[in-house]
Amino acid sequence: MPKQFFATKLVVGLSLILLTACAKQAQPLATPVLATSTSLRGYPPPQTPLPPPPTTTPVSYPPIPTLTPFPSATFGPSPTPFPTYPPLPTLIPTVNPTELPGLLLSSLRLESLENFNGHSLQRVTGWEYGIRQTSNCRSYGWLNDTHILFDPIVGEEEGMGVAQFSQPIVINLNNEQMWLPPVADLRSCGLPLWSESLQQLISRDTQGAVIHNADGQVIQYFPAGFDLSLSPSGKSLLTSSTWRNLETGKTIELNDRPQAWMTVWTLDEARVFDCCYSLADATTGQYTNFSLGQLQLVGRDGGDLYARWVLSDTRVVFHWDFTENDKYGMIPLIDPSTQTYQDIRVLAQLGSETSCGFPEIAPNGNYLIVGCGLPMAQLPPNRSLSYLIDLRTFISRPLSNDLQFINWSPDSSFALLAVNYNSQEQNRTYNLLPISGGDLIPLSTSPTLAPVWSPSSSHLAYLTEDGKSLITLEVATRASRIILLPQPFLNAIWHPQSNALALLASDGSLWWVPDFNADHVEQLTPPLPTPRDIHWGPSGTHLAFVSGPDIYIVAVAPQ
């Protein structure tokens, strides 16, 4: 599956639910900041001149608070206890946005550290304020094996919590060069977008969209509205009312499509569904905005709002809860082509008085698991209020009340369910639910830390309650292997090819299991303060993670 850095889930509060999409006129193009470590470069002239832009007022940002620096981490012999960083301070004066490029490029650097246990280490360091770390925003991401896109914090703002400001930067790990993609709003965290298939980075400033290669060379630019949506393949881009094929340059104008705040692509990438509610079709060039009567999203603070095409891209289901005529708890199955919907509760014979919400939709779009309830007076003894529903037949399977949904296997063959959750110890016991039928499959008889699926869905890996044993389960055969670990560990991260694992130890060191069929683990780094956001590079030759204000990159193959 190609990787793009774009929001697939929206963390939505009450105010966002009540907003309606409104059209925003695209502003003319200006020269974005495009920098190497030594110079700034502007755009080359376009091959086909754009019409002369009207005069516009330059964009201005609200003040961006200046933060108190982190101290830098240093390697030393057996740091026990390892150094700690203070929490990010709360906001005071401001970094001038016009000074940011120079400040960032003069401060940031790529350091080569002393090899550890035969593994080379690099560190992106020098920006004392750290890397963005809010839960719904990217801190950094691999573009390819030699380039990383990361978001240094350039300020904070207090409102409903603390909002972080950041300026995206791309670094080339081979030649240490950095450049700054243009950005329209330092508070935004959904851009730039990365097309792995085309190796192109899509950004926007206040005046248009810009496409670069990974080293910052401009490929093309064009006027665009404020909302950009990249297709899952990375080959099509929706910019307000223009559907653009990034391979051929062909564009399709959609009639009167306003700004959208959630866009869901079909698998063939020929249609998109916008909330709430509309359908754009690239094959006809038509955009249709429609109403679904009294069907409304429930306003709430918190929760992950997203929608997914289901049943071979013919219907849409939301991961959220709804009201209809002021009655709470229906599960709408929306048909955008006919601008109608049906109630899954009724189709699955759960009853219209049953109140359901937040259905968990399988990746293949054929199943969902949902928790439901009844008015207290109607609740029969021992009635199960969770269901597995087959959307192709609407046959429902009741599930025990004490089971809590965790996630789906990537291939939709199993659902991982938890029981006996211990909030103090953050552990549980887990079961696998075979979607094809059959009894629950217990993973262990004692509490474990959260299991993780391999990308291929062939294996699950999990740590025992004390973190001192790693268990891998081959799902097809139910065969498991136990690897005894030299110290307590906190979590495991699968290799992209599903043939190895990275492990984070409780002391902050990073390890790996080169072959989970062998009883062998190898330490990759010394202990470091609270490592987070651990990600394999695309080919699996390197791992990157954030510790304190820095990004570390370790080669898993000994150097």
Nutshell version of this structure?
The chain is 3% helix and 40% strand. The protein is mainly beta.
Helix percent reads under 10%
User: DSSP strand (E) fraction?
Assistant: 35-45%
Indicate the overall shape: globular
- Number of DSSP helical runs: 3
Low-pLDDT sequence parts: 1-93
E-strand count: 47
Give, in spatial order, the strands making up the sheet with the most strands: 2-3-47-46-45
Largest sheet: 5 strands, antiparallel
In round numbers, the mean pLDDT is 81
How large is the radius of gyration?
Answer: 25 Å
Ends: how far apart? 30 Å
| Quaternary organisation of the protein chains | single chain
Main structural class: mainly beta
Structure description:
The protein is mainly beta. The chain has three helices and 47 strands. It has a five-stranded antiparallel sheet. It has a four-stranded antiparallel sheet with strand order 4-5-8-9, with no helix packed on it. It has a four-stranded antiparallel sheet with strand order 10-11-12-13, with no helix packed on it. It is globular, with a radius of gyration of 25 Å. It starts with 9 loop residues before the first strand and ends with a strand.
Walk me through the topology.
Elements lengths: L9 E2 L2 H5 L81 H8 L1 E8 L2 E7 L14 E5 L2 E4 L2 E7 L1 E6 L2 E4 L5 E2 L13 E3 L4 E5 L4 E4 L5 E5 L5 E3 L5 E4 L2 E4 L5 E3 L9 E3 L5 E4 L3 E4 L4 E4 L5 E3 L6 E7 L4 E5 L2 E3 L2 E4 L1 E4 L4 E4 H4 L7 E7 L5 E7 L12 E5 L5 E4 L4 E5 L5 E9 L4 E8 L6 E2 L9 E2 L5 E5 L5 E6 L4 E6 L4 E6 L6 E5 L4 E4 L8 E2 L8 E5 L5 E6 L2 E6 L4
Antiparallel strand pairs: 1-23, 2-3, 3-47, 4-5, 5-8, 6-7, 8-9, 10-11, 11-12, 12-13, 14-15, 15-16, 16-17, 18-19, 19-20, 20-21, 22-25, 23-24, 25-26, 27-28, 29-30, 30-31, 31-32, 33-34, 34-35, 35-36, 37-38, 38-39, 39-40, 41-42, 42-43, 43-44, 45-46, 46-47
